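Consider this:
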Amino acid sequence: MTSLQDSRYLGGVNELTVITTIREGRVPGSTLTYLQQLEAVLDSIANREKRGIPTPIRLIATIHFARWIIWQDGERYRLIFTSNYDGSMWQYLRDFAALIASDMDRVWGNCDGYPAGGCKDFDAFWQYVGDHQVQTTGFFAALPRETLHRQEALLDFRAAYDAFLRDNLAQPVTDYQGFYERFCQFVRDTQSFQR
């Protein structure tokens, strides 16, 4: 098995870059080339994101950022995948195999050497990623100590706190005991936002 490159890991955030070669020729039983089929799949994902329609990639709750790029390299086309995510690469790729395997197969199945069993054949998928991973030279994470889940929890807390202030400080406080009791209830209600 290929040994995977050391990923850049900052706090709880990891990165991955994979470059694969898009297959040449037409898809069997179709008038589309592999490149055209891949473009259609990626366009569908992009259009759904733009319209706010959930995409399968959103099932991977640890993704901070993911991007696919089709790049022409001389006569051949390459697919570049980059991602920032929480946790280990092994678990991240396991999530692909467990949660969105058929969707990932629709993407990477258009590339040379993709496992016949797709990413459900995790050992073969792991090998494939290892064979095509490139080491990232520079990596930056704006909030390296915070997981995506924690960032979302903090945003939810901020919204709850803003609502509490809006609802309780719209008028000058005259009932200090009542305000204190409402604040204590707010603290109890938002305990889930704690570390």
Remarks:
- Residues 1-6 have pLDDT under 50 and may be disordered.
- The chain has six helices and four strands.
- The longest strand covers residues 63-73.
